[in-house]
């Protein structure tokens, strides 16, 4: 059962379009996987819609439809939306149906460091990096923390860290206060979003750096 969900505040910002693309993609994908959040999201959308229509008239008059459409079509993200159909992703002899929000994005090629492989999504987000990550059975990421944040949406398989085990659909948001060393027994596939290179806590940091760079 999914235990980790985006906060209500994040969902509201997602509805208002205030989040960076990668974070919106992760929330939309989680909503596809989670009935609880799908229901909550519908409710929040209705609330937001009625709040918008109840807004004072002056605001409505300053709403310029033409320029809004111009702005939308100028967004480079729309050039990158290649498909709205769920896509099957093959890894480690498994076939995984990706959430539509993720399948719609263009993916670069995979790079490997040991049991960890990562391909970056082509989203133009400044210091934010969205990736598809898969870890082979028995693989782990050495204990690390973050100067920024790390979001993981588990898509297939399981992994565990000091807080317990995660299942597909879990939306795990960590920041600089968390140290963790995720590991997977049977392999896993994740969507990740990080806003800064990982910071490894224990020795061997030079040796481990390739993994840090790979994941950021
Ligand atoms: Zn949820």
Architecture overview:
It is a single chain. This protein starts with 7 loop residues before the first helix and ends with a helix. The protein has one domain: Jelly Rolls. The protein is 34% helix and 27% strand. Helix 1 crosses helix 3 and helix 2 packs across helix 3. It has 216 residues and is an alpha+beta fold. Strands 3-4-5-11-7-10 form a six-stranded antiparallel β-sheet, with helices on both faces. It contains eight helices and twelve strands. It binds zinc ion (ZN). Zinc ion binds next to helix 3.
What's the arrangement of secondary structure elements?
Elements: H1 8-15, H2 21-33, H3 35-53, H4 57-61, H5 65-74, H6 77-80, E1 87-91, E2 94-98, H7 100-103, E3 111-113, E4 116-120, E5 129-135, E6 144-146, E7 149-157, E8 159-161, E9 164-166, E10 171-175, E11 188-194, E12 198-200, H8 205-215
Antiparallel strand pairs: 1-2, 3-4, 4-5, 5-11, 6-12, 7-10, 7-11, 8-9
Helix pairs in contact: 1-3, 2-3
Bound molecules: zinc ion.
The site of zinc ion has 6 residues, from α3.
Key features of this structure:
single chain; 216 residues; alpha+beta; Jelly Rolls; six-stranded antiparallel β-sheet; two-stranded antiparallel ribbon; 8 helices; 12 strands; 34% helix; globular; binds zinc ion
% residues in beta strands: 25-35%
**Attached small molecules:** zinc ion
Give the overall average pLDDT.
82
> What topology, given as strand order, has the largest sheet?
3-4-5-11-7-10
The end-to-end distance, rounded to whole angstroms, is 28 Å
Instruction: Tell me the overall shape.
Output: globular
Radius of gyration: 19 Å
Going by CATH, what is the homologous superfamily?
A: Jelly Rolls
Query: Helix and strand string, N-terminal first?
Result: HHHHHHEEHEEEEEEEEEEH
Question: What class, by secondary structure content?
Answer: alpha+beta
Please indicate the count of domains: 1
Largest sheet: 6 strands, antiparallel
CATH architecture: Sandwich
